[in-house]
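Lines hold sequence, tokenised fold; shown next:
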Amino acid sequence: MGKPGAENSLSGARDFSFSIDRGGTFTDVYAEFTDASGVRRTHVLKLLSEDPANYPDAPREGIRRVLEAATGVQHPRGVLLDTSRIAAIRMGTTVATNALLERKGERTALVVTRGFRDLLHIGNQSRPNIFDLEIRAPDVLYEMVVECDEQVVLPLGDAPGTRAGRDPAGDSQRHPLGGTPATAVTGEALVVRRGPNLEALRRDLQGVLDAGIVSVAVVLKHAAIFPQHEQLVGELAREMGFQQISLSSVVMPMVKMVPRGFTASADAYLTPHIMRYIQTFQAGFDEGLASVPVYFMQSDGGLTSVSDFSGHKAILSGPAGGYVGYAMTTRWGGADPAKLQMIGFDMGGTSTDVSRYAGNYEHVFESTTAGVTIQAPQLDINTVAAGGGSRLFFRSGVFQVGPESAGAHPGPVCYRKNGHLAITDANLVLGRILPDFFPKIFGPQENEALDVDGARAAMEAVTAEVNAHAEAAGQPPKSVDEVAMGFLRVANETMCRPIRALTQMKGYDVTQHVLACFGGAGGQHACAIAAALGIRTIFVHRYSGILSAVGIGLAEVVQEAQEPSAATLGADALPQLNERLDALQTQASEKLQEKGFSGEQISCQRFLNLRYEGTDVPVMTPAPSDSDYATAFEEAYQREFGFKLEGRSILVDDLRVRACGRHSELPEPAEAPSDAGPLPLPAATTSAYFEVGGRQQTPAYLLSDLRPGHQVPGPAMLIDNISTIVVEPACTAHITAGHDVRIELAQQALQGGASAGTECDPIQLAIFSHRFMGIAEQMGRVLQRTSISVNIKERLDFSCALFDADGNLVSNAPHLPVHLGAMSEAVKFQIRHYAPGGAGEAEGLREGDVLVSNHPQLAGGSHLPDITVITPVWEDGRVVFFVASRGHHADIGGISPGSMPPHSHSLEEEGAAIISHKLVQGGHFDEAGITDLLMAPGRGGNPAVSGTRNLQDNLSDLKAQVAANTKGIALVKELIAEYGLDVVQAYMKHIQANAEQAVREMLVAFSREQALPEVGSVSTRDQMDDGTPICLTVTIDRRDGSAVFDFEGTGPQVFGNTNAPPAVSQSAIIYALRCMVTRDIPLNHGCMAPITVRIPPGSLLAPSPDAAVVGGNVLTSQRVTDVVLKAFNAAAASQGCMNNFTFGDEGMGYYETIAGGAGAGPGWHGRSGVHTHMTNTRITDPEILERRYPVVLHQFRLRPGTGGAGRYRGGDGVVRELEFLRPLTASILSERRAVRPFGLLGGGSAEVGVNLLLKRDGSVVSLGGKATVQVQGGDRIRILTPGGGGFGPAEGAPGQQQHSGGAAEVQQLVAAVDSQVAAKRRRTGSAEFSVPLRDGGSVQRYVQNQETA
């Protein structure tokens, strides 16, 4: 390994280079040094990260041990460590990650623009888990907030356009902004309405200092393009004595106030903590350390010096080392490393990291760690909650792996600490781990071997549960080996899903990759993972157990420079862009030269962050050799998304330069000798169990005994002192010239040994659940890649699903609650429509037909913009399944752009209504026919009603939906080819039956908890703002666990648009049931199988076919959900509304839904400022909103005290206030403006919402719940959203609302609350969940975006 710049200048005596990965449990040390004979050698070491009884700092202790062992010279503990032989120290550390996870960073304050004190609490307003009624979001990192009274505004400008409108000069004259003109760093014109009031700020900051806080993050609106105000605040804070000042414009100069604010607050919170650790680390060395280059690993895969190391760049330090390690070392003789595509597979104790490398590091630029969104380059590493410590369960007839983890303490059963059954135990029981070759570090004294007997006893206990269930179901029993292998198969499928997603979502073929395996547990699963994915080659580095430390040693020293831009890419702009890139490159290179790197050792990569105009998907585009950024961007866009947007301008969001100080080049891999001689005798022979062949005598070889060129056929095990590699049957391990291991899989291994009968097997049940969900997920990725519109491609407002031959839901992705039950109704309608006696009987269904519909009342739709495309899957001349995709189309006609009118009174006014149409027949896409249907509303005689305003996007998105369905059909047919049609259909039924069983158990448990008779009922009601009641009686029959949901008493349909089609009520019910089951079950028809729904015809929830329904989908759905949860005493009312707000004109439109308060429940307070239940949409960042639309956002904060009082308080609503810069039409469609969100079991009601128009003349007008107004420049709309209800009577604290009942009634309510809390704990259990710490890789980001569409 070469030494960069500064290291080369050191004297020859300094010959030890240390690369260290300080992990949460272990610290890995990789050292290179020159021995007495002048030969370059390596030394590896693994030690506990925390062992205060023996040493204060693990990395320093590791260096001490290596120096002693290699030199023979004593380096006593307690004496400053001699640095005379140390050439360099490179280190990755989890200090920042642990501080975030444990919330042990520096006490911090936030300075933010006035009106936005709660912005980082609200974030993007979505909730992390849509089925968790207890909305658990991490606390913000700061303790105190200081609001800075300043305002920077983007004027309309002079040129007409989408934002500026037709007459920007006239509008600006009629509504002058005032203030002082200024220029942004991007060259854009700005207006400074108010500079910071520094005297007021000084007083407020003094209060922060007085509270003992000396770290501050400064986040001002538009600071990325106008940093002067933050600089003034920073100078003041520095003068006052603050020790850490993190300006968002310095920490990450990118437009987007929320992620930039999170990043700045993380920097202020973490950097002092890291610096204290570094000082502690350095304090144990002698003064010679000042001459030793010390570098720290960053999340982007590059090293940086101590002076440049900051908290927000340290989050992925260790995993980044592993990424660099496999990227740089996966090479062998005969293979061209430049042409290899690799999947990194890092399986640890609690989780598994997967990533991809193909010649360039793949980065993401916004990620979430421990609940904190970080805006900075990070390697695209995706985490799944399955590792060696993942716990094993048999629940309701299904094998389940994780997400709970046994952790390091107490660990798996075999650790001898009264631990939990885990994957490691399964491998041990199956003979795939040999205790004799494992360190004896277990038990109370940490001196015993792994406990095989204990692990087997625990597995026998689970096997007894499995067999008891099997006996009751009339199924054959399983052996302990079969059960243990079943858990491994389920775990492997869990880990395969993100790998498939990582490759396929970017347009790559997973089978063309090499599986680069590392981490302590990876070698035991690599062959099975590769076989399941169709990968033929596995590579395991000789130091795979400490590859993060190796990668840290191979990483380059990196210096990044970046600035925002507002340019349009083109020949005119390119010279100026290159000038700015030149300046950034000079800035980054000079910093590396200051670290001792010569010009020859520095390489620079230039990027433009580009996107199509009108989209929100930027592509960080590296500089092409011919400087044709446009072509490079379009090629990258085409590869990832499947097409190009013709005729669209390309916008430049950011300029970026990445400068690297490089090591000497890695040597070319050598060929292994063709004749290495005979294999050595195995170190042991053991009985190991494999999926193919069962128990087999398996040789175990020590890796140190094998020589380059040796070939080891499977089954076999290869063992070193830190890992075990299992070579499965039909696989062959090759020892490379570098003593690494390359495993080749024969075709027999790729075909696998999976087989199944039609009887329900609990192992296959879990595997088929993953496979069916994987089909729906991959359909979604095709739809996202091939669609055109912002709604589908970027907001991901769609769902894809798989149905059985009767139209019953089998699997659904990506979890839009309002789509959950509705799509099944749409498929069933089409089945009836073309069946004998149906309206389409004469036409019938034929192979190759693709159907389209959206009618809410007649065809199972939710509202007209949601168009469903349905494709039958044929086998042997009959329909065996259906696949379907539903997408929200931005416009399908009606009386207003966006097809979401607040004052519609008939369905005709809401757009095109399609009952059934063959979109594709005989392979022909019927463009003329669907065009006619989409344009039909404009031909109805009502001049106010238009056909679709965006036909081309409609057609393109419909073609994308057809493509997604085609992908689903191909995947279903692959599954049929693998298992047989009868088996696949049988498991569709088994999976539905499993979900049905879970719902029946929940219903029976509720009935008993409420002390209902064997057939008993609970009833409740609520009402809409117009007084229309929603009534529900739930009758539960404990004899079979069934229930009737009867909405008798619900009011009639209304002359408005809050009518809700029956499919919406079905969605609300299935959503509520899934929330109340509390364990992870697949969402499918089984959830509704025990349920009978009765809705009075002609009522609000079953309106006539021509009734308006757009508000029913977005408002009434929330109220139905509240009523269902109220009937089960599951949660108080949430805000009960989506607060749909739109504004625009003939050339521009904008739509958002706004957060409010969540209802409290048994054992939790309601979350404030969050979306609830049937919606989870992200809200536009304040800076993006103002850059793209003619508005100024004045406030986005919480409404303190608006949540209902109670033992558990309801969440507060929010205040959102916008000023308009020119005349526009604005509309609000909302509820809970008259009827307060109810509390439950004595909890107080929440405050209602209020919608106000603040005219520029000073007058204020209340708009009510539903209104459309013409606003002028200078007018404002202030929306105050409702809170959530409280749960249980308040305990009488000052200021809390007291329950009005007598003491006896209050006592009864308290007892009822205690009962509900206890019942919830029984249902959820007390196990601690090991949620993946990182959810910011591209796969997780995609899933999050779908869940917040």
In short: The two ends are 47 Å apart (CA to CA). DSSP finds 29 helices and 55 strands in the chain. Residues 1-12, 1293-1298, 1325-1334 have pLDDT under 50 and may be disordered. The longest strand covers residues 650-661.
